[in-house]
From TrEMBL:
SUPFAM superfamilies noted in UniProt: Cytochrome P450 (SSF48264)
Single GO molecular function: iron ion binding
Listed name of the protein: Cytochrome P450
Entry's family note: Belongs to the cytochrome P450 family.
Amino acid sequence: MDLFLLISLLSLSFLLLVIHHVRALCHSKNLPPGPRGLPIFGNLFDIGSKPHESLAKLAQLYGPLMTIKLGSVTSVVVSSPEMARQVLQKHDEAFSGRVVPNSITELEHSSHAVAWLPIGEEWRLIRRVLTSYLTNSKTLDLLRGIRHDVVQEMVCHLKDVCTKGESVGINKIAFTTIMNMMSRTCFSVNVDEYELGNEKGFRNAVTTIMKITAKFNIADYFPCVRCVDPQRARQKAKAAYGCLEQLCDYFIHQRLNQRSSGISRRGDILDSLLDFSQENQSDFNLKHIQVLLVELFLAGTETSAITTEWALAELISHPHIMLKLRDEISEMVRKRGTIEETEILRLPYLQAVVKETMRLHLAVPFLVPHKTEEDVNISGYVVPKDTQVLVNAWAIARDSDTWDKPTCFIPERFLKSGMDFKGQTFSFLPFGSGRRMCPGMPLAHRVVSLMIVSLVHYFEWKLPNESTEPEGLDMTESFSLTLQKAKPLVAVPTARP
Ligand code: HEM
C-alpha cells in the first residue's frame, strides 16, 4: 500500500511537472533571452556554487535582462545599472514583490516580517516603526553612546589578546560586537561574549537560521514536491526560528513583568515597541514585536560583520591604504581628542574605504530576490506576473563599462565621485534601491564605519603566518545567503601606543 501510494505520488508529481513545463513554454514567447536549459531541470546545473559569477558570465552572452529557468521556476536576472534603474526605479512597484523561501512559508514569521510581507498597510506600518524607533538620524545620534561602549569592550578584549600575542578570527570578533550593539540597543544587555562558545545563545541561533535558509532546497525550484518537503527544510527552519523567537520572547516577557511591578523603564527599543503596541494593539501586537526583533538580529548582524571582515582583509593586503586611513583617523583624534561617530562619518578617506569595500564585496550579492506583482513590459520584453527577479548587484558593481579596474580595491575612486549607496546610483547597490531598499542602511553605515576606525586606530595587524605576504591574502568568496570570505580572516593584533 505504501509503495503504491509512493508510486502514485511520484507519477502525479511528474505529470504536474510536465504540465507546468509545457505551460511555461507556451507563455515564454516574449520573455527576455536566456540560455537553453535542460528539460525539467532548466538551468539549475549552469549556476554552480557561485551563481553571482556564473550568471554574470551568462549575462555577457544574453544581455542585462536575461531569463533562466531554475527547475520549474522562471527567473529574470538583471545585470546592468540601466536595467537595475528600470526595475528598481521606473517599474519599482511592479517589481516589489518577494519570493518567500519554501522553508519558512509555514512560519508566522514570514507573515509579519518586513522582508517577506507584500507591499501593503502592514509592511508600511512596520517600516515606519523601524524608522521612527531605530534608524532615523536623531535616534541613531541618541543611541551612539551604546555603540561606543560596546566597541570599547571589543578594544579591551583585543588589548588582552595583544598581551598574549594570540591571533583572532575577525568575523567572530565583529559578529559578537555587532550582536551586542544590537542587543544593547534593543534590550539594554549584551547577549554575546568574546570567550564563550555560546552554543545556546543568540549567535548560535542566528547562524543556524542563516545556514538552514541558505541550503539548496529542491522545494523552492519544484513546487510540485512542496507538499512532501523532501529535505524536511520546513521542519528544520521551524526549530531554528523557534530558538531565536524564544530568546526574544524571554526579554519581552521579562520587560512586561518588570513594567507591571513598577520597575522603571530602560528607554531602549523594546520599551518603545511596547509603548507603540499598547497604543496600536490591533495593528501591532506582541507577535509583531517578536518578529521585528528576530528580523533585526537576522538582517543586521551577519551583513555588517562580513563587511567589517572584508574591509580589514583589504586593508591588511593594501598596507599603503591602511596607513593613509590611519593618518586620517589620527589627525581627527589629535584635533578632537577622541573617536566620535558623528565625526567619522565625515572622514572622506574612511568613507571611501567603506564604499569601496561595499562595492567590491557585496554582502547581499542578489539583493533579496524580488517578484513581479503584474505582467511588466520592459525593454521590448514581457516579464510575467509572479516571476522571480534576481538583481545581480555583485556583477553591476564590477561592470567594466562603469568601473575602471573593477576588481581592484581603489578607495580613491570614491573621493572624486559623489557616488553613494543611498539608492540613486544604480551601478552601486549594496543596500538595493526603491521601496524595498534596506531600511537598516543608516545604522549599518555607522556600525561598519565605527568598527573599521576602531580596528585600524587602536591596533596594527599582521597575518599569523609570517611567510604569507599581506598582498597574497586569499580573497576567495563563498556564496551563501551572504557573500562571505571563504577562508575566514585570522590576524594578530598589536596595540598601538
Ligand atoms: C552592511 C549591512 C547591510 C547590508 C549590506 C544590507 C543589505 C540589504 C539588501 C541588499 C537588502 C535587500 C534590498 C532589496 O531587496 O532591494 C536588505 C533588506 C533589508 N534589510 Fe538590510 N543590510 C544591512 C544591514 C541591515 C540592518 C542593520 C538592518 C536592521 C536594522 C537591516 C534590515 C533589513 C530589512 C528589514 C530588509 C528588508 C526590507 C524590505 O523588504 O522591505 N539591514 N538589506
